[in-house]
Amino acid sequence: MAERNPLSQPGTRSWLPRVSVDSETFGVFAESFARFMGTAKFLVYMTVFVIVWVTINLIGLFGLRWDPYPFILLNLFFSTQASYSAPLILLAQNRQEVRDKLSLDEDRRIAAQSRADMDFLAREIASIRMNLGELATRDFVRGELRTELRELAERLERTAEQRDES
Q: Name one Pfam family in it (predicted).
């Protein structure tokens, strides 16, 4: 008999309500929350909140004492905050990791393209250098022209001497 719901696959719970959450919107919220929790402003707010809470519950300001020492309700609030903040911070870190991976992949692609461009330019420069070896330089052309001018001048002198002799 075939197994209907193998243990390697998550089961479906039809009794749980289906909640539709836009992962991008929630991710942006998680990142902004994690970013705020990492600021000095958040630490100051939390410190002021705790001081006010403890002061009111120890002294009984305004006749209020809803959470006497050892502040069980305050501990419950902190536990609840920690239970929500840790997954939100992890979600923000996961999103940052995805962005970092995309950025790294793009950097690698650009580096590979730059390397290919540099290799092409190096081959082009080597080709130009090889072809320059076959080209006449300015000094070579000047030297050849001087030699030709000297030979031409010598021929003209010989021609003039031969005319004078005849």
A: DUF1003
Instruction: Delimit the domains of the chain by residue range.
Output: 23-122, 136-166
Q: What is the pLDDT of residues 77-100, one digit of tens each?
A: 999 988 988 888 888 899 999 999
Instruction: Tell me the longest C-alpha to C-alpha distance in the chain.
Output: 144
CA–CA separation, 3 and 11 (whole Å): 13
CA 28 vs. chain centroid, Å, equals: 19
Query: Residue ranges of the alpha helices (H) in 5-137?
Result: 23-37, 40-59, 72-134
Phi, psi of 161 (to 5 degrees): -70, -40
DSSP SS3 for 60: coil
Structure tokens that stand for 144 in this block:
């050849």
Cα–Cα distance measured from residue 43 to residue 38, given in angstroms and rounded to the nearest whole number: 8
CA distance 140 to 132: 13
